[in-house]
Amino acid sequence: MKAIISSEYGGPDTLQFNEIEKPKPLDNQVLVKIHAASMNYGNMLLLKGYPLLARLVFGVRKPKFTIPGGDMSGTVEAVGKNITQFQPGDEVFGDLSGSGWGAFAEYAAVPEEAIVRKPHNLSFEEAAAVPMAAVTALQAIRNKGKLKPGQKVLVHGATGGVGLFAVQIAKALGAEVTAVVSTRNVDLVQTVGADHTIDYTKEDFAEQEQNYDLILGVNGSRSISTYKRKLNNGGIYVNVGGGNSQLFQTLLLGPLLFIGGNKKASLFLQRANQKDLEFLRELIEEGKVKAIIDKTFQLSEAPEAYRYFEEEHIQGKVVLLV
């Protein structure tokens, strides 16, 4: 089979498009013929090995997961004898980041808990855009943010993969959602359900009177003290992404800044979860959540996809067609 191989840390030029042996499923694995896969921030960590803390997970000197790619969709080709949830011909999608990665290939042998049946109303390309970003948004909002219907949510950085899903999921869970975006993205976030938009090139959410019950720093670029000031009493700030400054502020300053009050700050790391993906499949089939694709590339064009993902201001997801 054809696959993208990452044998050393570096930039997109280190990736190779090679032919390797097709995997055979073990007794507890499903062999999936992959039709599409998508890019996520984790792919950049796995490619570059930076920040250096990432190497504790991905390999100190070189990547221990040589085929990158977490999100994928495809068709079950074969199953091991212990598999009970799937059979050949099933259309599936899933996140392989918790089971060795490997989505940037024509086939992958995966544990059955890494996949669920594909939503009937999504194409393979759209389905591949969902898992990691949408589960990240769901877990940040529901698990860390403790969202309740009727609460006010601010999504800071609302037009990347996670941000667009966050707007939709928060709406589906009954929130009143404000999205902070640039001018070119105002219409986009409105089409996916944002109740209010703030164009950061024209106005500053920190200077407005409105406060929020939950703030998601998806691409947060403001200080943690600013986010705290914009929370209602009992409110929660969840750091989902942003620069190293926001990461270290949340880790180091958060416990001190939020001590003694009824506001909270939390750093969030997504974990692949089959039940969460099943929940999202239901929301998608009910028409409450949809995938937004910015651009597609062929699998052989993976280096170009990485460059585009890193250098452009993405509206939604970047997808590789296999």
TrEMBL record:
**MF annotations from Gene Ontology:** oxidoreductase activity
Q: Where is the Enoyl reductase (ER) domain?
A: 10-320
Task: Note the SMART domains from the entry.
Answer: PKS_ER (SM00829)
Q: Which SUPFAM superfamilies match?
A: GroES-like (SSF50129), NAD(P)-binding Rossmann-fold domains (SSF51735)
InterPro entries linked to this entry: ADH-like_N (IPR013154), ER (IPR020843), GroES-like_sf (IPR011032), NAD(P)-bd_dom_sf (IPR036291), YIM1/Zinc_Alcohol_DH_Fams (IPR050700)
Q: Which Pfam families match?
A: ADH_N, ADH_zinc_N_2
- Where are the coiled-coil regions? none
Q: Which CDD domains does this chain map to?
A: MDR1 (cd08267)
> Which named protein is this?
Alcohol dehydrogenase
